[in-house]
Amino acid sequence: MLKTVNRVLLGLLGLGLFALGGGVLLGGLDLHRRWGFGMPGWWPFRDPDDVVLGAEVRTRWREEDWLWPAVIAVLAVLLALLLWWFLAQLRRHRLRQVLVDSEDDAAARLNGRALEDAIQQDAQALDGISRAHVRLTGRRAAPTARVRLLLEPHAEPAQTLGQLSRETLAHAQESAGLNRLPSEVRLREVRHRARHVA
């Protein structure tokens, strides 16, 4: 849902900015006269000397009492929508339940936090991993695992990643009865102070 909203909003914003920028560029460089085509009558930027708000536009609505409350209300709604969209980008949807396909064609539900904890404990038991954090996102029928690992100084990242994929994540996928479990793994090494030799 959020990906679709993002694509639609970014597409509309991009088209709007492209049209606005192209129109201002055509008027500012006087290209429509040089190339021999006309601009719409309502378009405000037809000449290089045109301004964003002319004197007529600035003074036309001065006597109307409803104008500024309406402008403020529209801007407040727009600000609220932009804040909602921004906060939705920061928040990662966490799965509360994972649908498990059982043998008798009945869909069972597995607690998402329990599966996260099981993957996390299995990952921390692997050699070279100091700490693990797991979060399940996506859809209930097709979850995605986001794994962050804190590696010990002696750990080899390629070997640890392979072991995590072959053992921990494969075991979680099999035990939950999932067809696939796409995963995003981030590795970070434990910071340690250098030893001083006397």
Describe the structure.
- This protein has three domains: 1-59, no CATH class; 61-91; 97-189, ANL, C-terminal domain (GMP Synthetase, Chain A, domain 3).
- It has helices spanning 2-28, 31-35, 55-60, 67-90, 112-124, 157-176; strands spanning 97-101, 107-111, 129-138, 143-151, 183-189.
- The longest helix has 27 residues, at 2-28.
- The chain is built from six helices and five strands, in the order H-H-H-H-E-E-H-E-E-H-E.
- The model has no long low-confidence stretch (mean pLDDT 81).
- By secondary structure, the chain is of the alpha+beta class.
| Whole-number count of domains | 3
Per CATH, the architecture of the largest domain is 2-Layer Sandwich
Instruction: Give the helix level as a range of percent.
Output: 40-55%
**CATH domain class of the largest domain:** Alpha Beta
**Largest sheet data:** 3 strands, mixed
Outline:
The chain has 198 residues and is an alpha+beta fold.
Characteristic key phrases:
single chain, 198 residues, alpha+beta, GMP Synthetase, Chain A, domain 3, two-stranded antiparallel sheet, 6 helices, 48% helix
Write the layout of secondary structure elements.
Elements: H1 2-28, H2 31-35, H3 55-60, H4 67-90, E1 97-101, E2 107-111, H5 112-124, E3 129-138, E4 143-151, H6 157-176, E5 183-189
Parallel strand pairs: 4-5
Antiparallel strand pairs: 1-2, 3-4
Helix pairs in contact: 5-6
